[in-house]
Each structure stands twice: as structure tokens, then as C-alpha cells.
Amino acid sequence: MKIALFGSTGRVGSVVLQQALAKHDIKRLVRKNSLEHVKGIQMIGDVLNEEDVMRTVEGTDAVISCLNTDKNDTLSRSMPILLKAMRHHGLKRIITCGTAGILQSRYDSTLYRFQSSESKRRSTVAAEDHLRAFLMLQASEMDWTVVCPTYLPDGVRLGNYRTEKDVLPEGGKSISMFDTGDFIFKQLEDDSYIRSRVGISY
User: What is the C-alpha separation between 114 and 76, in angstroms, rounded?
Assistant: First the structure.
């Protein structure tokens, strides 16, 4: 399988990259030449540039996005471009890394977690950017999965964690970037969470 990977230099994305390189051909879009000499095709460009995204998605079978949010709404601004490139090249499968804030509240299903007392974060800017990207995926025809970790320390790879569709596992407090990245990678061969968000925590 050939994978288009976005956000491969971030914490979770770098874990996905290392896992994926062992089994698949990787095309990844990065902002500048990486000093890492890893296998795979490295495309230099910008996820907000349609031509760069089109070149990255071309000839691949699935998309994984571990892009980080920022104060410039990169997630929600890049999602229409990713979806357009996928349609153009005939792809259906996309797996993204979200945030637990965009899961449903366990105690009030009309609210997202970031809108409820379950969330302890004072700022909702990042969650709102994630939410806009999620709503675009939800409205699309794609076979999407949004993996939604809670508090994400570097931690270690335990290989033992809980997942639940659309909500955070009860009492979940944290999940390492390694276990999150491993779970995202596993979604390439698992259709259990297609067209779903999935909460992940210890």
C-alpha cells in the first residue's frame, strides 16, 4: 500500500511514519528538507497549497493526517484541499488525528466534550479548529476515521489502552504519543471505526 502522510514531523506523526515505513510505501509532505534520511518519498511544500497536496496524494491508496492545530486554522483550511485531492485521485480512505475535545460529552450527547464540564482546557481555539475539520469529513463521502486522544504526553509505548466510538473511555486521563501513533497506523487494516471518531486513553 502507498500512503500519503501529512504531519510526519510532529510527535504523533513521527510515530506513524516509523511504523508505516516498515510495511508501506510513504509519500510525505514536509515544509522543508528534513535532515532525517528515511525511506519513502519526501515532498517539499505546504499543506495549504493545492498543487503540493495534489502531488503528494497522487498515486497513493490512503491518506493519514497528523497535522497539528495552530492559531492560523491550518486544520480546517487544509481539509478542503485534502478532500479535493482525494476526489481528484479517486481515494476514499483517510485517517486523521483529532482531539478528545471533539468527542461527544458522555453526560450530554448534545454537546462536544470541549463545550462541557468534562473538558478542563480554558482555551477552545484548538478544539474549534479540529471540529471544523471533523465536520467537513463527516459531510464528505470519504471512509474517514478521526482518532481522538486525550492528554498526550510523550510517555512510553505500553501497547495496552482503551478505545470507544464517539466518546472518551470513562475516566480516561492520558495516552502516550507512541500508543496513539500505533493505533492510528493500525486503522489502515481495521474497518471497525470507519466514519467514526474514536476516543483513546489508558
Answer: 17
What integer pLDDT is reported at residue 71 of this predicted model? 81
Q: Is the dihedral of CA 55, 44, 65, 160 positive or negative?
A: positive
Q: What is the number of domains present in the chain? A: 1
Q: Which domain holds residue 13?
A: 2-201
pLDDT on residue 36: 58
**What is the mean pLDDT for each group of 10 consecutive residues in the chain (202 residues)?**
96 96 95 68 94 98 94 94 98 98 95 92 89 98 98 96 98 97 98 98 98
Which amino acid type is present at position 112? Y
Sheet holding 143-149, edge to edge: 41-44, 25-30, 2-6, 62-65, 93-97, 143-149, 196-201, 162-165
pTM higher than 0.90, yes or no? yes
Contact between 152 and 95 under an 8 Å Cβ cutoff? The reply is no
| Cα dihedral 39, 194, 172, 13 in deg (nearest 10) | 20
Distance between CA atoms of 191 and 145, rounded to whole angstroms? 9
Residue type, 139: A
Q: Domain with 97 in it: what CATH number? A: 3.40.50.720
Cell numbers for 70, please give them.
495552530
CB 3 within 8 A of CB 61: yes
Q: Is 113 exposed, middle or buried (0-12, 13-18, 19+ CB in 10 A)?
A: buried
